[in-house]
Protein 1
Amino acid sequence: MSRTDSLGSAAASKPLRLSVSALIEDDAGRYLLLKRAASSAHFAGEWEPPGGKIDPHEPFDAALRREVKEETGLDVVLLGAAGVTEFEIERLRIIQLHIVAQASSTHVRISKEHTEYAWVHPGDFDRVDLCPKLRNWRELVCTVKEDPPT
């Protein structure tokens, strides 16, 4: 089966957009998640890691540092790739790069895009209403824990 067949012709005809997210772990082995505001156009009320779409001509690493700073107030150092997910919204297919990041602190200041934040242990991901786009996020985190970027 070709990639187009597995996506379906409607999905394959949608324009692609690249986005990024940060897997930020604290000293207790928990990961930072943000709850999207009820007013969000997509995935309202669901939890996600910090990140977002990349602006045209913006390097992905600069985009991720910008998004994390805007959404959390944190400065991060990017350590390496964790994986990729792909999902659809009405008019777009999104390919999301997940990057392991280290934060300068755990003092989070959320933006208006989100209503809450939480540091969540991987064993508790099932108790959080994660965005459907993150269906394999637990596997990404477990893979990073087994083989961290150097």
Protein 2
Amino acid sequence: MTDRLAAVPARVRAFWQNEAGQIGLLFAIGVTALMMLTGASIDYIRSSRAKTNLQNAADAVVLAVARDVDTVSSNDTLKQMARDRMATMLPNYTFDITSVSTAGGTLTINAQGSLPAGLAAVAGFSTLRQRVTSSAVWGTGKLEVALVLDSTGSMSTYNRMVELKKAAAALLAELQKSEAGLVKVGIVPFDVNVRVPTSNKTASWFKTDWWVSLFWSGCIADRDQNNDVSDAAVTTSSSTKYPGALCSSNQLTTIQPLTDNYTDLYAKVNALSPAGNTNITIGLAWGMAILSSQAPFSEGVVPGTRDVTKIIVLMTDGDNTENRWTSSATSIDARTQLACQAARDSSIVVYTVRLMEGNEDLLRNCASSDDNYYDVEQSADLVPAFQAIGEKISQLRLSQ
């Protein structure tokens, strides 16, 4: 026995002195480490994808379940409702709704999921866990919504106007589900100008010259800069007033002020008719105007009123091409950016929809968030995009 023990160090020394032995050992260690690292990376990717899917499902479930909070007697029932809905969205995935809370008028759902570990199990991790939280606010908050809709000539192609009418009607149908008196909607069709009834010719906020006055049929051009990009109050100064203009096309539909009369709203949508060039800025400016409590419209409540959310949904299918001063898209885009900023600064929630064509960066940046920007590649996809917006803005919103 003593001889065997004395021989061990010698054999070890011989192994290390043998170059082939050294290389073999280092290779074995390196391959093992590489396999573990690769396995851990694969498991991380799997877990990240599972967490994203779990978060998306939780976001959808919390919105759906929140609609029933007032009619459900216990959190346990809400938890089971959430489980049942999530099960249809995440087949073949192990998950649980770990808790549900309805404190402070906010429904909060915590969910946990798991996947069996792959090579990460070698390091002692048998299970990969994913945890997410999603919340939604519900209540009787009121909404004022301005639909700012492109009515330019390009909307006559590829069935765009037909699909816009369907999409706007679908959004109205979603909003109409709300309790009476909680939602008002206005509609701003635009091309280079917007249009109002000719009865406004004597309004204190209106101005024109003698030539336009002779032939005026209701069209309004951009206000003097910098009033053209905001809802700045009209004063006795001519620079603050809205200038009459000759219509570039007699097909432009007049603005619909805020109302909860859905018969009038559906009729206004059906009356949309495409013609003329594009001036997104004026559409946004008048979107702000109809949400306002001051001239030229006064149907909106005072900005900042408790429990009232003001929203603009802007849809366009092209680039800016003409305003009161120029046909330079770059120059008009700069005005549009200022109008977008003014709307957001006024706490207006802005949704933008780009239909097939248009300045993607301009519209994405105009929206209040990336989630509020919709890039619609085909006319037929406009309806589901507007339905999604309608669902988002009807009394519920994700709070995180």
Protein 3
Amino acid sequence: MGNNRLLILSVFLAVATYFSNPFFTFENGINKDLVSYWDREISTIKNTCKAGISMPTNVSVNFGETDDAIGYCQKYSNGFKIVLNEQYWYHNLDGSGKRQLLLHEMCHCIFNIKHNSDEKHFMYPEFTKIDENTLLNQLEGTIKSSSNCLR
């Protein structure tokens, strides 16, 4: 009986340690290091879609394994997750690059936007940094025609 209690206590402590680790802290499914970026881009999108956006409530944004990509969107029947390459995020992107990458993935997930063949467009499949004014103009033109951008 004592061994079972010890085993249960060990499992409990391992789980508690895992979920108290700051690298795995989430706010509404958003990694704590990504919350400020997420909030900013949701606000940008809401300002573009004056009447709001239609978005599922089951949303996850986190760092994880992305194979050769720097990010991807995985859609589910009741929501989506965005997974970003952590090394690329911290070592290759400045603030505007992070914004562009997150908006790119958000457009896939929220608006069902496909890749664009113009290599100077933020929805081009390979990351090519563009200036923020161009990014915001392209974003507006891209999402305003989506049915998830309420009018």
Protein 4
Amino acid sequence: MAFRAEDDVGALAFVNEENGAFQLGLSDVVRTDGKPLWDRESTISPRLATAAEHDQWLKALNADDLNVYLIPVVDLDDDDDDDEEEDDDGEIHLLSEDAIKEIRASLDAAEKILYGYLDKSFGSYKKAPDDHPVFSALQSIKDVADHFPEEE
């Protein structure tokens, strides 16, 4: 979730205020896979936003959104179903199957490109140093892919 803070101390105070607006706001939403954003026990560690996250935050603020989530979420308290379709099984789908397939294909293509880069640079991705930044990118791709339902 993106928010504004004067400095690191202010950010820490904001996210760690027990039963404060930030923590209570996390209990009103779940990830699109139904898992909670926060387990009410884990430490919340604020960090500076990336340039892309900052742009996303600014766009949402211009649309008068008070809470800006940087991952897809479902608001449990939202009675407005205009943007969401609910199937007979009660599962909420925010993306069409075609959109999910397209996203998965893009993630697969990015993964192949990154492994190809490592193979070309080191003769084999297995010879690349474990701390090479491409491995972080590959893990990010896997993490994003894990948020989408498996293809049937």
